[in-house]
Amino acid sequence: MSRKIFVNVCTQDLRRSIDFYTALGFTLVEDFSNEQAACLRLTDSIYVMAVTEGFFTETVTNGVSTSGTQVVLALELGSREEVDEVADKALAAGGEKAKDPMDEGFMYGRSFLDPDGHHWELMWMDAAAA
Predict the structure, then answer these.
(1) Residues 50 and 104 reside in one and the same domain
(2) pTM, whole model, 2 decimals?
(3) How far is 24 from 2, CA to CA, in rounded Å?
(4) Which of 2, 27, 42, 60 is the most buried (most CB within 10 A)?
(5) In degrees rounded to 5, what are phi and psi of residue 101?
(6) In terms of residue numbers, what domain contains 32?
(7) Half-sphere exposure of 6 (CA within 13 A, CB side)
(8) Per residue in 72-124, pLDDT tens?
(9) CA distance 38 to 108
(10) What is the CATH number of the domain that holds 77?
């Protein structure tokens, strides 16, 4: 059975989030978006739901934390070049570098914070060499 994941991220500025994620290659799914949330498709099984803070607060029971990282979103990509391409797009679109690139030869990664401070890790790994 194929499953989908919808990662919900709280945003202070919905338009900024839409612009940021579409600059990275996500596709806005307008049928599942409104003034409170935007559905952004990365693949047929991975989506980001950028949700306004007010609406996000209504969906959780233990409050919304804005002090520090609560989750790291990790995404495997197809090559070192694709890691660099997506990371560079993120920085150009308003993200900021989270930490220095990691290069272990068989594994390569870069990270960024989106405009709302959500931590993303991009990585490529040569499974055969690992």
Answers:
(1) no
(2) 0.86
(3) 25
(4) 42
(5) -60, 150
(6) 1-64
(7) 11
(8) 899 999 999 999 999 999 999 999 999 999 999 999 999 999 999 999 999 99
(9) 30
(10) 3.10.180.10
